[in-house]
Amino acid sequence: MENRVTALEVIAEQTQKSIDRLDRSVERLEQSIGETRKEMIQRIDDLRVDMDRNMQGLRSGVDHKFHWMIGGQFATLLAVIACMATLMVK
Fold first, then answer.
1. Taking CA atoms, which of 12, 33, 80, 88 is between 20 and 30 Å from 63?
2. Confidence at residue 75, expressed as pLDDT on a 0 to 100 scale
3. Buried (b) or exposed (e) across 67-87, using 16+ Cβ within 10 A?
4. What angle do CA 82, 84, 87 make, to 5 degrees?
5. How far apart are CA 66 and CA 74, in angstroms?
6. CA angle (23 as vertex; 21, 28 as ends), nearest 5
7. Predicted confidence band at 3 (pLDDT cuts at 50, 70, 90)?
8. pLDDT single digits (tens) 6-62
9. Count of CB atoms within 10 A of residue 88's CB?
10. SS3 per residue for the chain
């Protein structure tokens, strides 16, 4: 009977050690996940900043080209009006 009790005590100790190792592993995993999450949040924030910067540059370029396009259309309109005025004067 004592052998069985001793064997059960050994098994219980091994089981407790396994549970303790598992708890430590889970804690390390949770810590690693937390660190990874922080890194991902930082990278997402950096990406947002880069995207905002790129979007501002794109908007500036589009605005510049839009102004040139409107200027060209206005110049064409003035040229057409000048031609029509010249034809009406003759």
1. 80
2. 97
3. eeeeeeeeeeeeeeeeeeeee
4. 110
5. 12
6. 95
7. confident
8. 988 999 999 999 999 999 999 999 999 999 999 999 999 999 999 999 999 999 999
9. 7
10. CHHHHHHHHHHHHHHHHHHHHHHHHHHHHHHHHHHHHHHHHHHHHHHHHHHHHHHHHHHHHHHHHHHHHHHHHHHHHHHHHHHHHHHHHC
Residue keyed to tokens 């009406």: 88
At 14, list the tokens: 């091994």
Dihedral of alpha carbons 63, 66, 67, 68, sign? positive
Both tokens of 77, joined, read: 């309109």
